[in-house]
Design goal:
Layout: E1 4-6, H1 10-16, E2 22-23, E3 29-38, E4 58-63, E5 68-72, E6 81-84, E7 87-94, E8 101-103, E9 108-116, E10 121-130, E11 133-139, H2 141-146, E12 152-157, E13 160-165, H3 166-170, E14 177-179, E15 184-191, E16 198-205, E17 213-220, E18 233-240
Parallel strand pairs: 2-6, 3-10, 11-17
Antiparallel strand pairs: 1-3, 3-6, 4-5, 4-7, 7-9, 8-14, 9-10, 11-14, 12-13, 12-15, 15-16, 17-18
């Protein structure tokens, strides 16, 4: 698993700290933050669309009551040294994007609680993991040979839907759908090349979870006609569950 790591070593902060903002709240402790993104897809399934820029992650610090006391629109704006008064805090980070269903929008999130004592230095390595799920569609040559290019594959959840046209399918894993982890209904519709008749089929997937990559391979039996009954269409459905590394 490839990790993207941004570290702020203590020595480097001592050398360049004069060029960065230092936030003081009185009798404080120093907090140094580094971010790690975790939960990339396997090499075979991973694409540039899954890459994230940690510098764009928003950062928030809340106290024990849940009140936000510090926030930054991006990790790039976070000062090298954050000074906090003794208390209990939660620091959280989130990648850009807030759409529940969207093309190429992996969402990474992470949160960590910590206690602060005056006069101490804390180095926090916050791990952000995928909170949504990825969906890809593959159509076999048999499927494409039997149906006109006007076929449509609609994948819907309670939060919304995306539609894979032949043009989108041809782009392969360069474009993928990202959804909240909710049960999905897949609708397949197309026109037979043989006689111009309309065929349709649908099925449901209820076993979903964050960090899953759902790959749907749509196939047909090459008989000269397309049958979407039990023997006419098959769906190769697989889920790749991702391991979670806690640091």
């Amino acid at each position: 698993m490839k990790k993207i790591v941004l570290l702020l070593p203590l020595l480097a902060m001592m050398l360049v700290g004069c060029n960065k903002e230092v936030i003081s709240t009185g009798k404080t402790a120093e907090v140094h933050l580094s971010l790690t993104s975790d939960g990339e897809f396997t090499t075979i399934l991973r694409s540039d669309a899954d890459a994230v820029d940690i510098s764009l992650f928003s950062i928030s610090i809340t106290d024990g009551t849940g009140k936000e006391i510090r926030s930054w629109d991006s990790y790039a704006e976070v000062p090298d040294v954050i000074l906090l008064e003794p208390s209990n805090y939660t620091i959280s980070a989130k990648s850009p994007g807030d759409r529940e269903v969207a093309w190429n929008q992996p969402i990474y999130e992470g949160a960590q609680q910590f206690d602060v004592e005056a006069g101490k230095v804390y180095n926090i390595d916050l791990v952000c993991t995928l909170s949504n799920m990825k969906v890809s569609v593959i159509c076999t040559d048999a499927f494409k040979n039997e149906l006109e290019d006007d076929y449509n594959i609609k994948i819907a959840t309670d939060s919304g839907f995306l539609e894979w046209t032949s043009e989108i399918v041809e782009q392969g894993d360069a474009i993928a759908g990202f959804y909240l982890p909710e049960p999905m209904t897949i609708y397949i519709k197309g026109t037979r090349k043989l006689d111009g008749s309309i065929v349709s089929h649908y099925f449901q997937v209820n076993d979903v979870a964050p960090r899953d990559h759902h790959v749907f391979t749509i196939d047909v039996v090459e008989t000269g006609r397309v049958s979407f009954g039990d023997s006419g269409i098959s769906v190769d459905y697989s889920v790749n569950n991702r391991p979670v590394d806690i640091q």
